[in-house]
Amino acid sequence: STIMIPYGESGGWIMAIIPKLESNETSLHLNSDEIGWVTAFPSIFLTVGAIIAKFTADSIGRRNSLIVSMIPVAIGYSIMEFNTYGAMLVGRALSGVTNGFVPIFSLYIGEIADESIRGRLNLISNIVNNLSNIPVLLVSPFITLQELHLIIVIPSIIIMFLLFFIPESAHFYIMK
User: Fold this and answer.
1) Is the Cα torsion angle 77, 29, 15, 100 positive or negative in sign?
2) What is the phi/psi pair of residue 88, to 5°?
3) Measured between alpha carbons, how far is 67 from 119 in angstroms, rounded to an integer?
4) Radius of gyration of the chain, Cα coordinates, nearest whole angstrom
5) Closest CA to 169 of 112, 121, 119
6) What is the pLDDT of residues 100-137, one digit of tens each?
7) Which domains does the chain have, with CATH numbers?
8) pTM for this one?
């Protein structure tokens, strides 16, 4: 369920960053239209991620798709370190691509978990997703934008490496 942390942090990021951008706390000065685009880009690119996820889940497996899903968000928030409007758009687009992979986690749980606990595991993952907003929101008033990006990148990288230690879905192997 910890895989849901980067997904939730992305939602917390936008709630934390809008007040910073509107109050000119950062060297990046965006108008309301630009803030709107930065906010909307993940939703626009989520579909791209979902299409990619569908093909990767069937070709490289569910586990490997989850590993791949951590790459765009890590790269995206690293790019946002450049602190430009373009970097924000690219970073948020990559974050949206990662969010398109969320259904793969439910698919993976459905294939590996006993049916008596599947619902609870998916519930826990949704709780983790929602609660991962909280640390971002709690620390954001006290840190810089660049530090916030680093806080979001670190769990993505850690989770990506931890995913190498979980098994692939037997259902995927049977399909192959």
Assistant:
1) negative
2) -65, -45
3) 23
4) 17
5) 112
6) 999 999 999 999 999 999 999 989 998 998 899 999 99
7) 2-175 (1.20.1250.20)
8) 0.89
